[in-house]
């Protein structure tokens, strides 16, 4: 067996066996890593493949989280049914919101696109904050729980795995398809692609909606694991998270952002457990990252290999 | 139908009361002037450096904290307050020079996401640094005795400090206009917002220009923070809300336009002041709605230049 086939196999076995080596606390963290991996990869399909820097991707993660919370707490459906509908509902609602935000945002590119997505995210943030009757306002929605055995971290871990891995596979197929190659071409030269006859805005909008839906799915998976959603999920400071994860892992690989998500989440746990100045530490890490290793962790490995 | 009208009439009953209208207008205009001091710098920096400085709110906050420290020695004295204004402006200009030469200069050619991350990292670092230096509790700054009390005009009573804020804002706006439109340096700045490469090709030292513009913007933010210190709670969360308001202003007014920043600051200040009366709790949504409408109808802002 070639080494290149051995690595994914080992990784697969490792991911499956992982929770047996961990305490409940760290299983909880592993679930967080899974959710944020999907979140970061979905973001990077926009940024790394499409060249679209969204500064409002946290909106869809948050909408997915709130959709999950509302489904479980407010619809009055039985716990089992609500949970079964969870992925569909979270993705559906996030996709609808992404379609509206995207419709206005993809008309612009570059930094203006970032600002538009940012503006809509802040609009959604204020809605989450002010629609107290629906969202609990500043207090957020707490006490969310998956039904039955899924409430155990170990079982929920496999549920998260069963959601995240197929979702990543779908995204991978997407970026490897003609659709994905058109997207990459758009990043390089949108005007040329337009001359070939591609509807650039429609293509970007479709990508925006798909990645928004998967970010929503990630938010829903995380919401039921952490047990709560807060308006802070939609606040502007939250929008830096997927960017940091993607850049940390490397934006030019498909799974780099997932690696970035894992490193970020574990760092946050380790550092915020020791000091209340986690933002300060993160700021320094971001600066070091941007100034010293702009190609990310995967870039570091590649440089080592080619050296 | 008539009941709807009655409800609306109730909701807007305050509009009949000239005292309330005058008070809210004054509050709106004076808050707008504070917003202008932040957003003018934010807008100039974007116009010239093409960087969205998310840390601009943090610079404003540092200005307010410096005012706390400088006025703390001789509260209510005019000299102490003047020292605070000068100290905050100069201090932030120096910090601005350090940030531009130490960090931003390295990333002008980097992708947008790196630029966003760097100013974002600064938000976290400066926010926590302020907590380390000034603590977590809210501070207040006494209005200097000279500007305390209230002033009678047009049969109405106004807090004198609010009138002072308006005068200060007008003076700064006028001064900026002189600098930008009546000095050689101002011509360079305005030229840089249009075509940096051309300006550089004409032999202007754009490196130094960038540093100076960032220092000017930071200094204005510091001055704004010091001026705001007597009317806001000076605490570690101050910058998070301030930057959002400034951002809304700059987007509405047009990135890079000082005139736009002035008009939009007053607009947002007044919308906020009356929104609080007309739609309690929803005032924030109003300003975001303003921004969304402007972005959709005139994406480059009221006074901005289309790409």
* Beta strand count of chain A: 0
CATH overall fold name of chain B: ABC transporter involved in vitamin B12 uptake, BtuC
Oligomer: heterodimer
Low-confidence stretches of chain B: none
Shape of chain A: globular
DSSP helical segment count of chain B: 12
Structural classification of chain B: mainly alpha
The helix count of chain A comes to 14
Uncertain runs of chain A are none
Helical content of chain A (DSSP H or I, runs of 4+): over 70%
What amount of the residues of chain B lies in strands? under 5%
The biggest beta sheet of chain A, please?
none
Q: Please give the domain count of chain B.
A: 1
* Total domain modules of chain A: 1
CATH class value of chain B: Mainly Alpha
Span between N and C termini of chain A? 25 Å
* Inertia-based shape of chain B: globular
CATH architecture of chain B: Orthogonal Bundle
Would you list the SSEs of chain B in sequence order as H and E?
HHHHHEEHHHHHHH
Largest sheet of chain B: 2 strands, antiparallel
Describe this structure in a few short sentences:
Chain A has helices at 3-17, 24-49, 58-74, 79-105, 110-130, 132-135, 153-176, 178-188, 190-196, 200-226, 240-249, 256-272, 278-292, 296-306. By secondary structure, chain A is mainly α.
